[in-house]
Amino acid sequence: MRLSTSTIHFMQLPIEQACEEIARLGFEAVDIWSAHEGCPHLDDVLNRLGPDCLKGLLAKHKLKLFAFSVYSGGYKRYAELLAKVGGGVAVQGSSGAVKPEELTSKMKQFIESLKPLMELAEQNKSYLAVENHGNALLDTLDSFKAFVDINKSKHLGIALAPYHLQVINASVPEAIRICDRQLLFFYAWQRAEGNEQLPGVGPTDMAPWIEALAKVRYRGYVNPFMHGHVDVETMAVNLGKSRDYLKDCYTRLSDSAET
Fold this sequence. Notes:
By secondary structure, the protein is α/β, with parallel strands linked by helices.
């Protein structure tokens, strides 16, 4: 199991200090956010650092680039930058909610609408991951099934956010099973308030999630995540708890498999 986390957790810091903090906490990779909720990091990389300086920054802290989260700005804006840094995953949302009887047709239309971005991702050594969200096209387990059945591109997949599944009482392990090889990004994120959204801080037992990821041979990083902004020290302490908790889940799973 490999761990990353998102720069938006340290949005009050410049990108250089955010990466330094993430590396200090022992994360192997980073998810750099565009301007959602005012996060400055990805646009600062685009407009000031450029790809070479970003590669140097990541190398300095021995971090891998996992993803660009492009909820604001869109993938096209950052596609060339992502390619020049070596490629990765670009995470975006889907579209508005639909009636159950319209799910298949609307999903076909949505995936068809992504073809230009899929082609762009292929040209730029990258992958487009669509996140599930409440009251969105990609939301229920049935919508996951429709997505994976219709999608035929190796450069398109799903960014799974368990928080939103817990809102509708849907099974996270079942969602992971449905996504299978089309799972490109995984938020270790639970439905709770404040810091308790993070693994090992809130009440959710995430061991079944980690086991499900192992069963589908998930290739990406497990990304502890929360919404909301606290001071750097508080965030660092709680992300440290998340890191230790997720590693412990994986260790227990591995020990159980050996016995």
